[in-house]
Design brief:
InterPro entries: 5hmC_binding (IPR052181), EVE_domain (IPR002740), PUA-like_sf (IPR015947), THYN1-like_EVE (IPR047197). The protein has helices at residues 15-20, 34-43, 113-117, 141-149; strands spanning 3-8, 25-27, 49-54, 61-68, 73-74, 98-99, 101-112, 136-139. The chain is globular and about 45 Å long. It has a six-stranded mixed beta sheet. The protein has a two-stranded antiparallel sheet with strand order 5-6. The two termini are 26 Å apart. It has one domain: ph1033 like domains (ph1033 like fold, Roll), CATH 3.10.590. With 154 residues, it is of the alpha+beta class. It binds a DNA duplex (12 and 12 nucleotides) through residues 7, 9, 32-35, 55-57, 60, 113, 130-135.
DNA sequence: GCCAACGTTGGC
DNA sequence: GCCAACGTTGGC
């Protein structure tokens, strides 16, 4: 059982959009970074905990709790020439980009990035490190517990 | 819109 | 395999 933080731009898919989707579940399309892809393809298992994070928006921060809801499978947008995420080097036989489904468990209060940064217990979070811009980062069990049991109870 | 930091590309 | 140039991310 592992834990992750996954960034989504609310202009693309917000926590409310994900909640409105069937089964509160969305396919995590659009990842075009190998490290982030590898986390989904190689390291995630169904049931892993996910911090659903809003990025590139007025109030960046954690917006809810979710979970990995599928095994990895190809991101269909890579095959679609009309898609912003089209990849000419990907084929059905040798897909390049894999994703998982993510199911929202709970919309929480928005825990702003600024609050995360001010929390000493979270100083080592990967997503908070200088220069970190990965859209998917691992979260330790201690960080997960602290966020769930302390920050989200405020 | 700026820009620091990082990732990717491609010539050599 | 190196590395300069370019592209992207994402907070501010």
């Amino acid at each position: 059982m592992r834990y992750w933080l996954m960034k989504s731009e609310p202009g693309e898919v917000s926590i409310d959009d994900a909640l409105a989707a069937p089964n509160h579940t969305v396919a995590w399309t659009g990842v075009r970074n190998y490290q982030a892809r590898n986390f989904m393809r190689d390291a995630m298992t169904v049931g892993d905990g996910v911090l659903f994070y809003h990025s590139s928006c007025a109030e960046p921060g954690i917006a809810g709790l979710a979970e990995v809801a599928s095994t990895p499978y190809p991101d269909e947008t890579q095959f679609d020439p009309a898609s912003h995420y089209f990849d000419a080097k990907a084929t059905q036989e040798t897909p390049r980009w894999m994703l998982v489904d993510v199911r929202i468990r709970e919309k929480t209060r928005l825990v702003p990035l600024s609050e995360l940064r001010q929390t000493p217990e979270l100083a080592d979070m990967v997503v908070l490190q200088k220069g970190s811009r990965l859209s998917i980062t691992p979260v330790t069990v201690d960080e997960w517990k602290f966020i769930c049991k302390k920050l989200l109870k405020k």
